[in-house]
Amino acid sequence: MIREAAADALEVLGQRGEDVAAAESLTGGLVAAALTDAPGASRAFRGSVTAYATGIKRELLGVDGGLLDERGAVDAEVARQMATGVRRLLGTGWGVATTGVAGPEPQDGQPVGRVYVAVAGPGGEAVARRLDLEGDRAAIRDGSVAAALRLLCGELRKKSGGPDTEQTGDAGCLQP
User: Fold this and answer.
1) Fold topology of 2-175
2) CB contact set of 39 (below 8 Å; sequence gap of 6+)
3) What is the band of 161 on the pLDDT scale with cuts at 50, 70, 90?
4) Which end of the chain is more exposed for a tag (fewer CB within 10 A), N or C?
């Protein structure tokens, strides 16, 4: 599922001449790995920032320090700002971000499995989704990658410029 969603997103981006970058916290580079695993990734994937430490989110990605102090790193607005920040930093049309708690212990008052994924698009708008995942650390991280790529696919579909007549599925972005 992850591999297909990554390949489909890159295909759509490549067809449009657009590109994407990733900002990752709990996934630690797994979104970037999924995207670069797809053939032809260099046409549309520009790079990533693994912002595991809160200070990197603030200093490199431009996440508001007051927001981080008030809400912590596991927050929908933090995810949106990460996606927007990596877009700006790497000069891409699209940014995708992950932040959350993979465990084994809760963090900043957030339970294990609480994750936010976000996508920022060419118009500058960013959307985020909250996930409450179950399983061990690996399952939570894999679920976060899959959700981030599905959100990217969904946002690409919305910005297709035409009516949404494609059939969608969990395995990829656009399926016949």
Assistant:
1) Maf protein (3.90.950)
2) 7
3) low
4) C
